[in-house]
Amino acid sequence: MAGQALSVVLPAWNEAVKVCGTLAVLRSAFSEAELIVSDDGSTDATAAEAEKVSAVDPKVRVLRNPHRGRGRALQSGLAAASGEVVVTIDADLSYGPEDVRRLFEHLQTHPACDLVIGSCYMPGGRVEGVPARRLLISRWGNVLLRFAFHGQFWTTTGILRGYRREKLQTLLKDPGLVSDGKELYLEFLHKALAAGWKVEEIPATLTWRRGPGGGNFALLRTAGSHLDFLFAQRFCMVFTLAMGLILLPWVRVLGMAQGWYLPVFRFVSSVAGRAFARSLFVFEMRLLFSVFCIAGIASSLLLPHVLVAKISWDHRFVKPLDKVRKAICAPLALLLYALMVLNACALAGFLRVSDAFSLPSP
Asked: Which domains are delineated in the chain?
């Protein structure tokens, strides 16, 4: 391997215990590679420990950054890389040197490929020792995000990626690159695909190297940003589905008013008697109408957030925030909240009067 052709970037935050060992493992595997530790304003001695290694190894570079999130630390390290191929991994070696080598060799042997993703979830990939709760969240999050990318990729939230530096530099110069945290992985991938990059995915092995509660993982913030991305990418489908749920109770009311239920009611009455048919009808109406109204209320609460997510991600993707879109967002959100209140009132009122329905004789 031509070591000078490879740069390995490790964003790090509070990794003082592990960083020196990680650099030693990588140096033994890649004797000539450039190793870059991009410290995200750690509160421990991460940068100082890494600088001890760089003092005796000129191909180890340490970047001290203010604490602004992994995304910013990663961008800083990528911008400083000088290798023809740049590979990013975690500072705790959750992906090991063998995975780095596979990504490097894939780009060397596939000249048409611009970005290669190492995936532990695709066929051939493996996960070792990851706590069940964390694995469940990660795996299902990637299942949802796979849907956002039209089923193209198995792992879209992982750090293990290999880039061609000349392509990477154009991406880093994008003025709309604004993600500070782990959502940067999604933003990078989306913008790479929009720019026409050829992106491929190969199997990798994720190994848990922390204690039972270890890891810098802001669950709610990360999950929220990933759901926002999904909403933005599948906005039309999510919006249509939610609006359908909002209007569903009123379709049911229209069905009652038009007597669409009468043939079924008459048939049940002829088989089981009017009293049973009426009890069944009232129970069915209570249950279905309640479910429909609750779904409508939930959708009314969700849709304004979906609108905000759409506008936010559109802004990241450098689509102009035109005045028309801004003008309709707030009124539409108010309309949705009004529908929510209407559904709630309909639910409360219906549950009070549903027992008083008078049904015609079969």
From this structure: 3-214 (3.90.550.10), 234-356 (no CATH)
